[in-house]
Please model this.
Amino acid sequence: MLEEISFTTKSIHEKTKNFSPQVGIILGSGLGGLVREIKTEFEIPYSDIPHFPQSTVKGHSGKLLFGSIGNKNVMAMQGRFHYYEGYSMKQITFPVRVMKALGVQILVVSNASGGMNPEFEVGEIMIINDHINLFPDNPLIGKNEDTLGPRFPDMSEAYSRRLRSIALNFARENHIRIKEGVYAGLTGPCFETPAEYRYLWRIGADAVGMSTVPEVIVARHSGMEVFGISIITDLGVEGKVFNVSHEEVLEVAAAKEPLVSQIVKEVIIRA
Ligand code: HPA
Model:
């Protein structure tokens, strides 16, 4: 893996004149609008990046953006990889390894999720304060590369308390309704049954989705600080479980995206 990381990093350095990002951003479903906040200097399609997984979805090829948000150099993944697409955990998280090698210290992840917490409404914005890994897999399984991180990484503060309070303070100052909660990550691609939503709420999760956990595990393994934010696009609350479609998920996410982008931008600037 080390050779692939350094080969890919070298290739990106050549294409970006040694651009050095401090913050890495992974844009989730319907949250692509955040790229508007980036003053972009370089763009590289995934298909031009050695060892990068190639998107299986047509017209969704994905690219890396390099530029700035306020006072910070950032890089963003427009298009992420999901386990349900058939990628391995190592493939899904390879971009995070490359981010680290390029100098990224803070990882920002966004996603759409289903809410189990009965206090949540559709369109709720949730700062992720912890996660439960329900994937039947872990990106760190296999021989540990000690130069990348420890064999048994600590996960007691997977989502930075410091970055969470920046977001909560900004939301309070601007009267933006915001919640905090635990994100359960599982494979999908089915949405959950009512019994599964009930189970997830009982084990302590406030929201559920099909991404984020693998990337955050690798980010923590490599010593990055993490900020995670989720848009609750549908509810898995007892008695309120209705038919969900991917279209509805994207629609709700798109409606809330400007507000989420504003919060993320502020966290990046104040970080
Ligand atoms: N379940 C899983 N993933 C999701 C959901 C959900 O209800 N909504 C958006 N992504």
Observations:
- The mean pLDDT is 94.
- The domain at 2-270 is CATH 3.40.50.1580 (Rossmann fold).
